[in-house]
Amino acid sequence: MFDMLGSIFKNLTTKPATRNYPFSTREMSKTTRGCISGIDSDACIYCGICQRKCPSDAIKVDKANRTWELETFRCIVCGECVTACPKKCIYMDNKHATSSTKKDIIVCKGALKEVAPKVDPAQVKQEKVSVNA
Predict the structure, then answer these.
(1) Could you tell me where the beta strands, DSSP code E, fall in 3-85?
(2) pLDDT tens digits for 59-97?
(3) What residues does 39 pair with on adjacent strands?
(4) C-alpha 75, offset from chain centre
(5) What is the pTM of this model?
(6) Where are the beta strands (DSSP E) in the chain?
(7) Residues 6 or more apart whose Cβ sits within 8 Å of residue 52
(8) Domain boundaries in the chain?
(9) What is the distance between the alpha carbons of residues 65 and 111, in angstroms, rounded to a whole number?
């Protein structure tokens, strides 16, 4: 009984071992993965490799509409999408995501770019068009 009283008095006189999160946050180390902050839509080629590598199916890529979506509740912050991206256009911040009670989806849309086909000038047929006035 006296051993327990010593522990009680010690705990009453010392600071708690835990932090009062979200009021007191901890400084992040350099090796912290953090959370996915977004994608550079100009550099992305919408190949879908990040979608295939994601173990929790949190990423959806639509190449036809050039859209990239991330469901933040499903993301397990493993970083596989960042390492698998051939253009290195997915970014992770060195901070934890803020807690939320609603389902957040990060959506990035790229501009639909018209790609002109490469044509050999020697193969182009030239036609003469005459206009009657």
Answers:
(1) 35-39, 59-62, 67-71
(2) 999 988 888 888 888 888 898 999 999 999 998 888 777
(3) 90
(4) 9
(5) 0.61
(6) 35-39, 59-62, 67-71, 90-93, 105-109
(7) 84
(8) 31-95+103-110
(9) 9
